[in-house]
Write a structure and sequence with these properties.
two-stranded antiparallel sheet; alpha+beta; 38% helix; 355 residues; 2 domains; 6 strands
């Protein structure tokens, strides 16, 4: 290819990238960034994080191929990173983390990504694509930063100027080429609001999350009873935790605007502990199937819910917990018995004598 042909090809691909981004927005995506499929940065950081055991029991988080996107698709030369935004909730803490009060983002993100993949294959016949949304060993956050979608904040989340931490990521590998976007620039500066907001001090230092101390890990991934320090930090949270996201100063009024791709299920977002106890007892799968809450399974979600209720003094909480003492799952029964014991125990006093 001579210099003129190469220049014409570059212009064609730049124009195609602009059209692709326009289509991504039309499909409901908040952002689409482009980078190469070369190995991702910070492999040493990731391997050190694993060596320190900060992945807790999440053994599927392995090094190696996570650093090399091209290992997931033979011949891949381009990596596109899509971000879907979702609305910041009006209250924090809330029982269910905001990302989970809506459709399963895996399914929601794949829909527009499939359409973009078809456009790429049509643009370059014979090319191939692969979509990943937490379904392959790929470090999406490093990819998002290199593709210009957002930078990695001190809470290890991707931060977007307009949408803060309230985005979810999907990636699209392609064997064709597009001009890459410039990487995002870290803009956290001296801010540490997210670190200070964590109710369990899960950040031993900036950009370092210890899952063993993270309330999201304990209420989603871990199936053992919550240890006392996690229980004390729940504050009514039963699936995930948004404390560090809510504390981030980035994002404007659009943070609370509904997303066309991931609209909020208002009922799930508005329920309190007592209503959740009532609704989830016999209808867990009906309420939460095809939502992120499904990840905890029925017994995990009910364990979290009952445990949080056991620290609540709300009216009618004891009566709402009591039916779970006869549940078919012994793990749920154990959580109910323990929660009722705490509710019925004498309340601590301030040590002053009364007349």
């Amino acid at each position: 290819m001579n210099e003129k042909d190469r220049s014409d090809d570059d212009a064609l691909r730049a124009g195609w990238k602009a059209a692709l981004k326009e289509q991504a927005h039309a499909l409901g995506l908040a952002e689409l960034g482009v980078t190469t499929a070369e190995p991702l940065p910070r492999a040493d950081y990731y391997e050190a994080w694993l060596a320190q055991g900060r992945n807790a029991t999440m053994e599927w988080l392995k090094p190696g191929e996570r650093t090399d996107p091209a290992a997931l698709l033979p011949g891949a030369r381009t990596l596109l990173v899509a971000a879907a935004r979702y609305a910041k909730p009006a209250r924090e803490p809330a029982p269910i983390a905001a990302y989970a009060t809506r459709d399963d983002y895996h399914l929601a993100l794949k829909r527009p990504l499939r359409k973009l993949a078809a456009l790429l294959r049509a643009f370059e016949p014979g090319s191939t694509t692969r979509i990943t949304v937490d379904t392959a060993p790929l470090r999406e956050r490093e990819a998002a930063m290199r593709a210009g979608v957002g930078w990695i904040g001190k809470n290890t989340m991707v931060v977007h100027k307009q949408h803060g931490c309230y985005t979810l990521l999907g990636t699209l590998l392609w064997t064709g080429t597009l001009p890459p976007d410039p990487p995002a620039v870290d803009q956290c500066a001296e801010c540490r609001r997210c670190l200070d907001a964590c109710p369990t001090q899960a950040f031993p230092e900036p950009w370092q999350l210890d899952a063993r101390r993270c309330l999201s890990y304990w209420t989603i991934e871990q199936r053992e009873p919550l240890p006392p320090e996690m229980r004390a930090a729940q504050q009514g949270r039963v699936f995930g935790c948004d404390a560090c996201l809510a504390a981030c100063p980035y994002g404007g009024r659009s943070l609370h605007a509904e997303s066309p791709l991931l609209p909020t299920f208002e009922r799930q977002a508005s329920l309190g502990l007592r209503e959740l106890l009532h609704d989830a007892r016999g209808r867990f799968w009906k309420l939460f199937r095809k939502t992120p809450v499904e990840r905890a399974r029925r017994h995990g979600f009910l364990r979290n819910l009952i445990t949080a209720a056991g620290d609540s003094r709300g009216e009618g909480i004891e009566q709402a917990i009591t039916p779970f003492c006869h549940d078919h799952d012994p793990r749920v029964v154990a959580a109910a018995d323990e929660a009722l014991a705490r509710l019925r125990a004498p309340r601590p006093t301030d040590g002053k004598e009364t007349a």
